[in-house]
Request: fold
Amino acid sequence: MKTKLLFTAIAVVLLPVFTHAQAPADWRDDLADRMAGIWKVEGQVMGREAHHEVKAEWVLNHQFLLLHEKTAGDAPKTEQTYDAFWFLGYDPVSERYVLHLMDTFGARYSETLGYGMRAGNGIRFVFEYPDGPFHTTYLLHPEKDVWEWLMEQKDKNGKWTSFAHLKLTRVAQH
Reply:
């Protein structure tokens, strides 16, 4: 009898926890959906030519768009190699996008989340890094099915400067 009473008490206590912890509905976003796929990335990073690839796919119960960015296999051998995972999500409570970057530069720069707002066909993220603010803007040009990634940082004099300007072109899938 005591055992049955104990299990009943535990069930009454834990039931609200399990009910509240159910997985949320899939996140659907028409702009983020347009980024899913495989992309050729070209442009400038810190004044140097960059040749990257991005594979973007929905993960974690369709809560995040995972963008795996890496140096292209056919990039010039002199180009610094880069590898990154960007997790793009949306917080419906705060009504803002969230972007978490993990890359070859290590955990120091991965501890800061970017928070973004949508404006038309773009999302502008603000990262408050320990060494100063950083902006990343994803901008879709729907008529060409091309994305533009613009990254800016504030220099020590308080002036915004270009960190990267990249163009993403969809790779035809066979």
